[in-house]
Amino acid sequence: MTRALSLSFLTCLGAPPEEAVSVAAATGYDFLGLRMLPAAPGGIAFPLMEDASRRRALRRQMEDSGIGIFDVEMIRLAPDFRPDPFLPFLEASADLGARAILVAGDDPDEGRLTASFVALCEAAAPFGLTADLEFMPQSDLADLAAALRVLNAAGQPNQGVIVDTLHVSRARVAPSAIAAIPRQWLHYGQICDGPAEIPATREALNFAARHERLLPGDGAIDLTAIFAALPPDLPVAVEVPNDRQSAGMTAEAWARRARRAALDVLEPQPVGKES
Fold first, then answer.
1. What residue ranges define each of the domains in the chain, with the CATH number in brackets?
2. How far is residue 180's CA from residue 184's CA, in Å, rounded to a whole number?
3. Which of 31, 114, 221, 223 is the S-S candidate for 6 at Cβ 3.0 to 4.6 Å?
């Protein structure tokens, strides 16, 4: 079975959406991830919710190239979260045909975080969008167990959890725990590799996640075991930002290399058969 692959925003080296669509089409991806809200204050993002004409042109380009938008980034559930300011983001995401919102948990009060997540899911549902929690050891939603507690309490029909192989490794999540995730909560996963050593601070974890991920197969993460625990038809976003390895490469060259490495893990060729 051929998995649908999405080119994550970070892999495309911060390219503008129009370039990212061209890169995804040229390198064989099915989908693309867009970042319309920054991951951190001052971070790179392309606020397409502020430009309807640009969205129209982007839709035409996607239709011509056969590339869809899978996930849009990102909404952070901070202690003061309210859904209303994000309605333009949700509307623009639906306008572009996106499927999923990447959601980070930045509230140490789990009950309040859950209430915020419910409010986001309810706001996203009329737009046909899922809200997918990404647990990260450098966030207040630090591991899969925490994410599942929120989902079990929230009980929303459009909720989900993202299995990102880097965070799985660094949160020390066992494949058996991944296999136990209800299928309806899995909308897509993310693939990359990483070294065995786990950074000791939030700052170091964040830096490595944004700048030092390894190509699938180049690190110590047991990617085979992780994906054996996931549905074989689950779409996968290829998220491999690496400042050092990609230096001097075009976005297209790096995206192509990342896709090939991901497929070597996800769809290994029989011995003796050329890839």
1. 5-266 (3.20.20.150)
2. 11
3. 31
